[in-house]
Amino acid sequence: MQQLPDIVLSSKVLAYLLRKQASCLTLELKPLMSCCVPYSPPPHITLSPPEIRSRFHMIQQDSITIYLDRSLCDIQRLTIDKLGFSIFSWLSVTDWRPLPL
């Protein structure tokens, strides 16, 4: 059985999801390819279920459904936090390190 990462949701994230009346998060890895250097940015986070659910693991945590991209399953820990302020805020994986390609 594949080991799933420990996903930590900060209290700011839980308050943000409550305010947005969102009950799910999707973490999707979207690697970018520049001219000659591959780059693996932090996972893209959305407040809706993925279109192709077979590419994701579903995890229930803190009454939130988390859809985790299967390519992120080898990571030990993912910490999600709310960054910015007011209307200029977003969710981000704060302990992200680029993956080796």
Automatic annotation (TrEMBL):
<protein>
    <submittedName>
        <fullName>Uncharacterized protein</fullName>
    </submittedName>
</protein>
